[in-house]
């Protein structure tokens, strides 16, 4: 286990052991995530299964493949939407307009793909961006969510209505087919995006990009792992490339010199040349 755990969990050896076993046996790098987040997720599973104590829950994980699967699922928070935080998209649009030649974009921690597809739609919608020059790579650690991303089909519900999300940007609904219960992204939009598995704790970037968008993952990540992830993202930027993080997220102090703020409030940064 990394020495990065906070004191509260170091004072809780049973929880530490459980995290170590999850990391070793399930391949989920618990040491990169913050304790409060891991506790909430693990304890939600324990309540669901009526289990008292981390040791008992560890035994359940040993015995039941379904519970291992359910825990892995619970550890990935996949909440996302089309054009999430609409105010950020006006700046993203400006950034995309400025790129000469091919426009290479990485949606890191892309969840079910709506962020990557939103960028593809912007390329079609904005006459100053030539969609034929745009390549988008969406990556996530969660194989199940990547399968859904590739399908590009999103169920409509009262709390998560993709149609409503798309109305944040004029004309975006032209790029989907809407049925009573779902929204399906058009092939022309899907064709701009490739999805693949990538773990941001692994160190290697997914390629070289003009724009890297990594939003709403760092909120769950422990500080040192976050610094490593930002280094990975930085390594994936072409000179002068842009990075966008989540509206409530900040860059770790060690990485700040590598970037200048383009729009601090909307968390848009440019790599210093
Ligand atoms: C809350 S979603 C964010 C989706 C999208 N970026 C957004 O802002 O709407 C966080 C995503 O990070 C993914 N994730 C968690 N740990 C990861 C890691 N180590 N590497 C890559 N993706 C990870 C999760 O599977 C999840 O889909």
Automatic annotation (TrEMBL):
Keywords: Methyltransferase, S-adenosyl-L-methionine, Transferase. This is protein-glutamate O-methyltransferase. GO terms for biological process: methylation. It catalyses: L-glutamyl-[protein] + S-adenosyl-L-methionine = [protein]-L-glutamate 5-O-methyl ester + S-adenosyl-L-homocysteine. Its EC number is 2.1.1.80. PROSITE patterns: CHER. The keyword S-adenosyl-L-methionine applies. Residues 3-272 form the CheR-type methyltransferase domain. Pfam families: CheR, CheR_N. GO terms for molecular function: protein-glutamate O-methyltransferase activity. InterPro entries: Bact_Chemotaxis_MeTrfase, CheR_C, CheR_MeTrfase, CheR_N, CheR_N_sf, SAM-dependent_MTases_sf. It comes from Salinirubellus salinus. The keyword Disulfide bond does not apply. Signal peptide: none annotated.
């Amino acid at each position: 286990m990394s020495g990065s755990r906070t004191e509260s969990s170091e004072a809780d050896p049973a929880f530490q052991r459980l995290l170590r076993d999850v990391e070793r046996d399930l391949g989920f790098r618990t040491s990169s995530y913050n304790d409060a987040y891991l506790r909430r997720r693990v304890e939600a599973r324990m309540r669901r299964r009526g289990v008292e104590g981390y040791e008992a829950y560890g035994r359940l994980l040993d015995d039941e493949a379904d519970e291992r699967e359910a825990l892995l699922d619970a550890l990935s928070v996949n909440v996302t939407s089309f054009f999430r935080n609409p105010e950020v998209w006006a700046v993203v649009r400006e950034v995309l307009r400025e790129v000469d030649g091919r426009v290479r974009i990485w949606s890191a921690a892309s969840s079910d793909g709506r962020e990557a597809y939103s960028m593809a739609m912007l390329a079609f919608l904005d006459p100053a961006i030539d969609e034929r020059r745009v390549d988008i790579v969406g990556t996530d650690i969660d194989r199940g969510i990547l399968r859904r991303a590739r399908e590009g089909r999103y169920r409509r519900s009262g709390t998560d209505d993709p149609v409503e999300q798309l109305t944040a940007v004029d004309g975006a609904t032209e790029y989907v087919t809407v049925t009573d219960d779902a929204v399906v992204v058009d092939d022309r939009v899907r064709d701009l995006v490739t999805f693949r598995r990538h773990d941001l704790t692994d160190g290697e970037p997914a390629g070289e990009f003009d724009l890297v968008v990594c939003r709403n993952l760092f909120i769950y990540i422990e500080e040192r792992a976050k610094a490593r992830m930002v280094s990975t993202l930085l390594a994936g930027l072409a000179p002068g490339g842009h990075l966008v993080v989540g509206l409530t997220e900040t860059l770790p102090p060690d990485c700040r010199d590598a970037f200048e703020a383009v729009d601090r409030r909307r968390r848009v940064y440019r790599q210093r040349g």
